[in-house]
Amino acid sequence: QVQLVESGGGLVQAGGSLRLSCAASGRIFSINVMGWYRQVPGEQRELVAAIADGGSTNYADSVKGRFTISRDNDKNTVYLQMNTLKVEDTSVYYCYVDVRSPMSARGVHWGQGTQVTVSS
To answer: What is the spatial distance between Cα 21 and Cα 111, in angstroms, rounded to a whole number?
Structure first.
C-alpha cells in the first residue's frame, strides 16, 4: 500500500516563500511522474508542477519563474519550492505520484492535501 505524507503548508504573507514536501512510502520500486496539483473549493483541481523520473519538468503558466519542483528518488520524495507567493496562490495543494512498479502498486496515488494561505 502506497502512502503519501505532505508537509510544509501554512500561512505566509504575499511575497514570502514556502517549501512543500511529499514523501511516498510503501512497496515502491519505481516512480514515473511526481507532482503537485492545487484546488480551491468550488473550482477544478489544476496542475501546478510535475517532474518526470528523467528530470524534465512542467509548470502552470501562473507559477513559472516563482515555483521550482524537484525530487529525491532515493527518498521517493517530491518538493515544491514556492517563492514570491501571491494571494491567488492560496489553495489546498495535493501531491501525487505515478508509480511504475511493482505492479501491485502501479497507478496514481494522492496525498491528503496541505493548506497554503497567502495573506495580503
So the answer is: 11
- Cell 514570502: give the residue: 16
47-103: pLDDT as tens digits: 999 999 999 999 999 999 999 999 999 999 999 999 999 999 999 999 999 999 998
| C-alpha R_g of the chain | 14
Q: Map grid coordinates 511529499 to a residue.
A: 22
Q: Which residues of 39-74 are buried (b: 16+ CB within 10 A; e: fewer)?
A: eeeeeeeeebbbbeeeeeeebeeebeeebbbebeee
- Asked whether 24 and 110 are in contact (CB, 8 A), the reply is no
